[in-house]
Design goal:
The chain is of the alpha/beta class. It has 23 helices and 19 strands. It is an enzyme of class 2 (transferase).
Length: 702
């Protein structure tokens, strides 16, 4: 513990909170990332969602440092003058030397201060700063690597700014957390210049690990066998790898986001992480317990409207017995598990047809790719649907008026005469307009590289073309969802809430925000034991499947076995009754407390304790202790019946409306929910993060 200060666990909003016990008023905290106000990937979500919790604790002593982009500044940042004297003087000094530094409040929850550096205005210093980096760590950057050059400018500006801050800090100690290799140069230069700061470096995914997995290399089975320098050199990223590795070894404290990434980092970057800092979300609870169920029903109806248009002329399946599945994320065909997902869908289609199931599965692939524009046939489908709706509404109005007039006269209308010949003609023409000679398209857009696109090529191989006999239908939507889209006018969150299951069988997923977001919204999901989220849930939940978290083994199984396991998960999900899915969604939503930053933020706080004790040992002494952990704590397997929604399944898929009348007696939702609430409120130990004996890295490439 910190000498002279106590560490305690108290409650915040019903959740445990790790009180830092630090003299926050005597400290300045900076977080540096290329994704501050600049959405590129998942780090943006980490910083954006964590900002409120951190700002609540640190107040005006918390600052985010990122790059300046005019559009982002205009739409996301409210400019203001810095209150902190050290920050103001540092900005003034840099601005006088021709560097444009902006300051303001980021318009997100918590409204943290942001300091943004204009990269372009300082590009004239590039050659000089390349020399500074070479003198600091003997790493050179090729002139043609524009991204690495931008990172050098950004890192040099960061180090310059931190020097000016520490020169005017008036005795305050400075903690700086750097995210990913893009921010690492600032760390390297700060340490080379011996700035009096405490540094934390966080890797969210190793640079080389992502490249190796994308190349379909047997990664986890050969972690200790790679020639790191050779692999990085062959991919022409050796200079970037050197920057990342130097950042890791220069930092006082090295952290990563999951246990699986910690193992990877130990081999790729040659340093074992000091602290594992899982990623969280801002969890908002509805005042009405089942409001999220109502949202599911509402947004599901909107997805059903899209499906009616997309499959016009082939809508021979019952939408009330149709399940909506989806996969979303960067278009990394193997890393994100789209390959194994498509293969398992082919097998699922066979099982559903073999058992003559009346359940239909519609699967959405939300993965941005290069396109020309919307598919004409897809646009036509939505136009036909709207025309049919207008026709039906017009006939309904006419029918309603005649019925109303007849009832006013005290007559029972003759149903044979209430619709005249014109009405019948209009309806027949509407029916004829729904006829189509082609199958419903498998993609909503015209793909630029249709012939070699991995998803479309696999669809051609497995033969899932949305034919009438297929029980599994596919829709590739190769752009991010938007409420302004003429096809599917829904935001991502609305779409997720309307689906039944998210499927993310990733091979390389250091954390996995997509299944975490599903969990917070009460939507079951499929993940793997190679994702940080999957490992986290395995550690915290005794029976993840009962809580709607299906974890596919992609670490110790062959690809075919993993595919079969995923197929069985999907097939079992199709066999659930409507009531079983409702029970499962309730359980899934209760896991959201585990992913709340108010709980997970304590891991970051521990990293700050540790870095202060290492950077300033004479003032901040930390006893040999360990990060907060939940060792010995798990959500128990639900004792109520059915123990999991698959526990009372029939041998073949049921109607989604089928319910077991006896389930009401065997399942007490309020009792189970209260038990889960008590579990998450349990006191958490401060023992070491369990490492155990070193595990094998895997048996097969998946």
């Amino acid at each position: 513990m910190l000498r002279g200060r106590s560490l305690s666990v108290t409650s915040l909003g019903g959740l445990p909170r790790w009180e830092a016990g630090l003299p926050v008023e005597d400290l300045l905290l900076f977080e540096v990332s290329w994704e501050v106000t600049n959405k590129v990937g998942g780090i943006y979500t980490v910083i954006q969602t964590k900002a409120k919790t951190t700002a609540d604790e640190w107040g005006d002593n918390y600052f985010l440092i990122g790059p300046y982009f005019e559009h982002n500044m205009k739409t996301q940042v409210e400019q203001c003058e810095p209150v902190n004297d050290a920050v103001r003087r540092a900005m003034d000094t840099m601005n006088k030397h021709g560097c444009q530094v902006r300051f303001g409040r980021w318009l997100i929850e918590g409204s943290p201060y942001v300091i943004l550096f204009d990269i372009g205005s300082s590009a004239w210093n590039l050659d000089k700063w390349k020399g500074d980096l070479w003198e600091a760590c003997n790493v050179g950057i090729p002139y043609h690597d524009q991204e690495a050059n931008d990172m050098l400018i950004f890192g040099s500006l960061t180090a310059w700014f931190l020097k000016e801050v520490t020169d005017h800090a008036d005795g305050r100690h400075v903690i700086v957390q750097f995210h990913e290799w893009q921010a690492g140069i600032g760390l390297i230069l700060s340490r080379a210049r011996k700035l009096p700061i405490a540094t934390v470096f966080t890797t969210h995914a190793t640079l080389l690990g992502r490249y190796l997995c994308a190349a379909n290399i047997d990664f986890y089975n050969h972690l200790d066998k790679f020639n790191i320098d050779k692999e990085a050199g062959e991919r022409q990223i050796y200079h970037r790898y050197c920057m990342e590795r130097a950042s890791v070894h220069c930092a006082h404290v090295f952290t990563t986001v999951s246990e699986i990434t910690a193992i990877e980092a130990e081999h790729m970057l040659k340093r074992k992480p000091d602290v594992v800092t899982p990623n969280g979300l801002n969890v908002k609870k509805f005042s009405a317990v089942h409001e999220f169920q109502n949202l599911h029903a509402m947004y599901k109806a909107r997805i059903q409207e899209f499906v009616r248009g997309h499959f016009y002329g082939h809508l021979d399946f019952d939408l009330e017995k149709t399940l909506f599945l989806f996969i979303a994320g960067r278009y990394e065909f193997s890393n994100k598990g789209a390959d194994i997902f498509l293969e398992s869908l082919s097998r699922l289609n066979f099982l559903l047809r073999m058992h003559k199931s009346d359940v239909t599965v519609v699967v959405f692939f939300i993965m941005p790719a290069k396109t020309n524009n919307f598919n004409v046939e897809t646009l036509k489908g939505q136009a036909v649907r709207k025309q049919l709706w207008d026709t039906a509404h017009s006939v309904k109005e006419k029918f309603g008026k005649k019925l109303y007039d007849a009832l006013l006269r005290g007559e029972i209308p003759d149903m044979n005469n209430i619709l005249d010949r014109d009405d019948l003609t209009i309806m027949k023409r509407a029916i004829f307009s729904t006829q189509r000679q082609s199958l419903p398209p498998v993609t909503t857009h015209n793909m630029i590289d249709d012939a070699t696109d991995p998803i479309l090529s696999t669809i051609r191989r497995i033969g899932l073309f949305n034919s009438r006999t297929d029980r599994v239908k596919l829709i590739l939507h190769p752009e991010f969802l938007s409420s302004t889209s003429p096809l599917l006018p829904m935001d991502y969150e609305e779409f997720v809430r309307g689906c039944h299951l998210g499927v993310f069988p990733s091979y390389y997923e250091p954390w996995g925000y997509t299944p975490a977001e599903c969990t917070v919204m009460g939507i079951p999901s499929v993940t793997t034991n190679l994702s940080g989220f999957g490992c986290f849930m395995q550690e915290h939940v005794a029976d993840p499947t009962a809580y709607g978290i299906y974890i596919v083994d992609r670490r110790f199984c062959s690809p075919d076995d993993s595919c079969n396991q995923l197929t069985q998960f999907l097939y079992g999900f199709c066999k659930q009754s409507r009531r079983q899915r409702i029970i499962q969604r309730n359980r899934t939503e209760r896991l959201s407390d585990l992913l709340d930053w108010r709980y997970l933020g304590r891991y970051y706080q521990h990293a700050r304790h540790l870095t202060l004790s290492r950077a300033f040992p004479e003032k901040f002494h930390m006893e040999p202790t360990s990060p907060p952990t939940t060792e010995g704590f798990k959500y128990p397997r639900p004792s109520s019946v059915p123990p999991s929604p698959s526990g009372s399944q029939a041998s073949s898929p049921q109607s989604s409306d089928a319910e077991d009348d006896n389930e009401d007696e065997r399942y007490d939702e309020e009792e189970e929910a209260e038990r889960d609430r008590l579990n998450i409120k349990s006191r958490f130990s401060l023992s070491h993060v369990p490492r155990g004996k070193k595990k094998q890295h895997g048996e097969y490439k998946n």
